[in-house]
Amino acid sequence: MSNHLLKDPQQRREELASDDSPYFGGSSCLLSLSFVLYYLANKTEDFHSLFPHIEEQVALLYEEDPLLYFYTSAPNLSEEDGVKVSKFLDDYYDLFTRLDDLIVFTKERGRTFALSYLEEDRNFLKNILLDNLHAFSNRNDVPNILKEKVASLSFQENLNHE
Fold it and tell me: From residue 153, how far is each of 16, 38, 90, 111 by CA, in Å?
């Protein structure tokens, strides 16, 4: 398996550096995370069997992140928008669960070089998610499905930070 985000690093740098780029901090962090996953995959024989498709999941989130950010300030969210955003939030939350497992695995395998990067990227992405949840919770036009998702994830995220 290959890391989709790293196939054309020059293109990724251009995407992130462009003045009119839709990619922001979350996208940059996901790209950073891709490098860490690439390192771990190359240094750990059973990485792909233990963490199948995690690299593809990060690549998908790289593409979804600008859309999630867009929806935080888009006017008049429709029910369809609410479904899309709910899916994006589920994708992020699933990644956090998998990253938590990967962090435990990394500690057990003594991959200390990667550990601090994994933890920093996870924490940065969690803070971005919390900012997005806060943005949606302060809006009056949020569809019910998204209101429920935001409330559920906000509660779960608050529990994880105690």
Answer: 28, 29, 9, 30
